[in-house]
Amino acid sequence: xxxxxxxxxxxxxxxxxxxxxxxxxxxxxxxxxxxxxxxxxxxxxxxxxxxxxxxxxxxxxxxxxxxxxxxxxxxxxxxxxxxxxxxxxxxxxxxxxxxxxxxxxxxxxxxxxxxxxxxxxxxxxxxxxxxxxxxxxxxxxxxxxxxxxxxxxxxxxx
Length: 158
Prior knowledge:
It is a single chain. This protein is an all-alpha fold. It has helices spanning 3-18, 25-42, 48-58, 62-77, 84-108, 115-134, 141-146, 148-157. The longest helix has 25 residues, at 84-108. The relative contact order is 0.08.
């Protein structure tokens, strides 16, 4: 699990305790704040439950704040707090990896001294660099082996 997912899970688990009926106003306010943080980190501020939480807190309506906080916990449990931006980024990332792999394979099918080979490897490295630097391969030297010649080109570019 990534640090972000661990942090979100910890906040959700804390929320479970804070929204119990035996808690008081301070705990309900904390639960609402944690819920807002979870929504903001996972989806952004435009989620309908975020508006409900903000409205309830402004009106000091702790019953509504607790209900909205419970909704965040329930949405999390149902797996409904998925970031649409993250899904799109993963899809684009997959396409970029596919393009980079095609470039690397094209380069590997060419003779070593051929001019086009270096161009294909450079294109693959260009496409892969953000994925390697910031994505799933971030800092992982072993992952460069899986990237074949393009990984070698990335290694050389550092």
